[in-house]
């Protein structure tokens, strides 16, 4: 395996690429964002992009390694592509993203369909990797992690919409023992705040109504004297109607940030605060660096500083050695905090992580499933209660599209990130309007549009 030399973002390659490129994305928002960067990078180098996978001569699959579900789906896909290649499709297949970084050799060995792998810090190598695959060269791997790469000079090719993502930092230095990200995305590095402000302004000019600042651990953001709270303030002042961010770490949470959020109307009153577990021994084994009491105190402080704020979270069930009693501690904390929403996952062992090296994945699959199902049920009740507070109230919502269940209704989102559905022929996607809530379910507010004077 060899590594190609980097290609500058602005380089003009000879237009010899006969095939069109299709980029397919699995996993998190950061991956969606990276796919947008890759599209710009390839476009600048003379490649033609297509949204239709069937007409693509070059298929790039941006992968996720964080949990087992994405892994299983991608492996199934690679099985299909290998069969397709055996039938002589001649299609170039490149694997990007976290799984490529983590399982580079395994991917190349197991799947003859894969022409090259390219990790999240090596996307400037893509034109070279594609060219070599097209000319029948050696299968390549570009998997160097960088301390500096932020793709600052590349503007993402965005899908038109209401929300634009902006990566403000890359990598993670936290090393939670279950998590593969520090190995697949490397060390933390923050982008220049001016670049982020300029990108927000470009979103406003293009008609976007919301920006979401992305980072694996946004409260570690720092660029010279600008910390995350100062960055949020600068982005708020650009004047886009809504600003969100994801995710902060509950450890070292900047209090100053809460005051900034409380002070600015366009900073959404919703914070995603990943809990992972409510038991101190498990938290220690996860290397989360906070206790359940500290988490509770933080949640209370957030609620005092930003009245009415919505908190959402991530939880892992069945971490190695997690007993029934330890799991019950998580349930108890979930009830006490009363999150507005929670993503609940079964622990899945990830290759190369500290947990994989130190602890046997010993909680039976059936127990993990039972714990997740139970927690999801409890969370639904909490959410239903949370949503009932809005009955009869009028909420400002941002319209994102039509409802999946009923296409005659608009699907919109409150500042708290709760879905609201309503009907009104005069409304368009991207409108901000007011909806009176008449009915609620655990996941949705159902209402009617109202005009508010002034
Ligand atoms: N197993 C299960 N869930 C995981 N997550 C990250 N790594 C794992 C793993 N190995 C979850 C965490 C994280 C979210 C993005 O994914 O809850 O916050
Ligand atoms: Fe993974 Fe922990 Fe970093 Fe989040 S903070 S990306 S869970 S190591």
Question: Stretches where pLDDT falls below 50 for ≥5 residues?
Answer: 1-17
Helical residues, percent: 25-40%
Bound molecules: 5'-deoxyadenosine, iron/sulfur cluster
- Assembly state (oligomeric): single chain
Number of strands: 20
Largest sheet: 5 strands, parallel
List the helices and strands and how they pair.
Elements: E1 20-25, H1 29-44, E2 56-63, H2 68-86, E3 92-96, H3 97-102, H4 104-110, E4 116-118, H5 126-134, E5 140-142, E6 163-167, E7 169-170, H6 181-184, E8 189-190, H7 193-205, E9 210-214, E10 222-223, E11 226-227, H8 228-238, E12 242-246, H9 255-263, E13 270-272, H10 280-286, H11 292-305, E14 310-317, H12 324-337, E15 341-346, H13 354-358, H14 365-388, E16 394-402, E17 410-414, E18 419-422, E19 432-440, E20 444-450
Parallel strand pairs: 1-2, 2-3, 3-4, 4-5, 6-9, 9-12, 13-14, 14-15, 18-20
Antiparallel strand pairs: 7-8, 10-11, 16-17, 16-19, 17-18, 19-20
Helix pairs in contact: 7-8, 8-9, 12-14
Could you walk me through the main structural features you see in this protein, from its secondary elements to its overall organization?
This protein folds into three domains: 20-142, 3-Layer(aba) Sandwich (Rossmann fold), CATH 3.40.50.12160; 163-388, pyruvate-formate lyase- activating enzyme, CATH 3.80.30; 394-450, Beta Barrel (OB fold (Dihydrolipoamide Acetyltransferase, E2P)), CATH 2.40.50. It has 14 helices and 20 strands. It has helices at residues 29-44, 68-86, 97-102, 104-110, 126-134, 181-184, 193-205, 228-238, 255-263, 280-286, 292-305, 324-337, 354-358, 365-388; strands at 20-25, 56-63, 92-96, 116-118, 140-142, 163-167, 169-170, 189-190, 210-214, 222-223, 226-227, 242-246, 270-272, 310-317, 341-346, 394-402, 410-414, 419-422, 432-440, 444-450. Helix 2 links the parallel strand 2 (56-63) and strand 3 (92-96). Helix 7 (193-205) packs parallel to helix 8 (228-238), helix 8 (228-238) packs parallel to helix 9 and helix 12 (324-337) packs parallel to helix 14. The longest helix has 24 residues, at 365-388. The termini are far apart. Bound molecules: 5'-deoxyadenosine (5AD) and iron/sulfur cluster (SF4). The site of iron/sulfur cluster has 10 residues, from helix 6.
């Amino acid at each position: 395996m060899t590594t190609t030399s980097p290609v500058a973002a602005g380089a003009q390659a000879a237009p010899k690429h006969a095939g069109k490129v299709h980029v397919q994305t699995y996993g998190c928002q950061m991956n969606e964002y990276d796919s947008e960067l890759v599209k710009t990078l390839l476009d600048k180098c003379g490649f033609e992009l297509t949204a239709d996978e069937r007409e693509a001569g070059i298929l790039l699959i941006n992968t996720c390694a964080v949990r087992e579900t994405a892994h299983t789906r991608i492996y199934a896909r690679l099985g299909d592509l290998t069969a397709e290649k055996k039938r002589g499709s001649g299609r170039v297949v490149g694997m990007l993203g976290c799984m490529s970084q983590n399982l580079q050799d395994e991917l190349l060995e197991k799947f003859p369909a894969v022409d090259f792998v390219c990790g999240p810090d090596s996307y400037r190598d893509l034109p070279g990797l594609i060219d070599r695959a097209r000319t029948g060269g050696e299968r390549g791997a570009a998997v160097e992690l960088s301390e500096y790469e932020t793709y600052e000079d590349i503007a993402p090719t965005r899908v038109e919409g209401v929300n634009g993502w902006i990566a403000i930092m890359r990598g993670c230095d936290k090393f939670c023992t279950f998590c593969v990200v520090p190995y697949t995305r490397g060390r933390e590095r923050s982008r220049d705040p001016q670049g982020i402000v300029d990108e927000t302004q470009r979103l406003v000019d293009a008609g976007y109504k919301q920006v979401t600042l992305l980072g694996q651990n946004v409260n570690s953001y720092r660029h010279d004297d600008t910390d995350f709270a100062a960055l949020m303030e600068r982005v708020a002042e650009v004047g886009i109607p809504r600003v969100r961010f994801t995710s902060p770490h509950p450890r070292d949470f900047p209090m100053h940030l809460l005051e900034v959020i409380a002070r600015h109307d366009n900073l959404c009153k919703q914070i995603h605060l990943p809990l992972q577990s409510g038991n101190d021994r498990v938290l220690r084994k996860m290397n989360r660096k906070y206790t359940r009491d500290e988490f509770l105190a933080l949640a209370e402080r957030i609620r005092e500083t930003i009245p009415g704020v919505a908190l959402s979270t991530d939880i892992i069930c069945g971490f190695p050695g997690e007993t029934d009693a330890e799991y019950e501690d998580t349930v108890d904390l979930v009830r006490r905090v009363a999150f507005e929403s929670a993503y609940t996952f079964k622990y899945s062992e990830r290759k190369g992580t500290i947990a994989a090296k130190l602890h046997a994945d010993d909680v039976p699959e059936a127990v993990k499933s039972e714990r997740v199902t139970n927690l999801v049920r409890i969370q639904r009740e909490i959410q239903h209660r949370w949503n009932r507070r809005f009955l009869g109230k009028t909420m400002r919502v941002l319209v994102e599209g039509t409802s999946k269940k009923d296409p005659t209704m608009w699907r919109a989102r409150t500042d708290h990130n709760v879905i609201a559905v309503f009907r009104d022929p005069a409304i368009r996607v991207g409108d901000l309007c007011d909806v009176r809530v008449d009915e609620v379910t655990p996941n949705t507010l159902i209402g009617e549009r109202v005009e508010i004077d002034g």
